[in-house]
Input
Amino acid sequence: MTVLEAIRTPAAVDRAGASAPAKIEVANVTLRYTRKQDQSESTALDNVSLRVGTGEFLAIVGPSGCGKSTLLKVINGLLRPSEGSVRIDGKPVENVPDGVGFVFQSDGLLPWRTAEENVAIGATLAGRSATDARQRALELLTELGVQRAIGKHPHELSGGMRKRVALARTIAYEPKLYLLDEPFSALDAQTRIHVGNRFIKTLEEIGQTVIIVTHDLEEAIALADRVIVMSAAPGRIAAEFKIDLPRPRDYYQSRFHPDFRRQQQQLWDVLQREMAGELNS
Output
């Protein structure tokens, strides 16, 4: 089997491998914008179509500037496509929809609120009482190893601690759909393993749909059911392949599974071909 044959898989599968109803449908999305400096037009996304099944964990990788983060913002209704459409649960996305948890590259924490208060906001939006929301915030901050941040404001925290607070706030919101943009990027290796494992266990228990953007190929394989490779700008889907590692998974130990290195090599081959301009859409 060639690399390209190995990566051509059904559009959406659930974690048991069966066909799953669509949670997200991205249809022929193109996004253009005008540069303020010279009023020239650039294309960020070029005719992107994508279907994500309910309960599927999808990872998106690709070169810097290829439109990965832009695609997440289009799915979340933060950006309107120039052409094409996005549907979540069959409904057109025209504004930011309810029930979607978004973790930005920047943490997006409210600077005038403490870590505990920031996380409690998510729990309050999930319908918890003020007392329950505070308790949930304390539980999540402790589980993610940032209990020292509880009474501190974002400017008093390191970048890695702020990222964990932002992730805790998103989990507290109990969304039906997670959109995560480099959520573990500011974490050291040991903390990334701890937080990654906590997140895997949470998502495997509740079975929510997840899209994660990452530059870490090993992370994409350790987490996802399917990996999408985006091309260099203008962004398009260059290739995709299914991850066959069994669940439940361990964020770190999964890397020692016999199939892990094989799938990592396939992914790296695809990225190399794309970077060299050898892989066509």
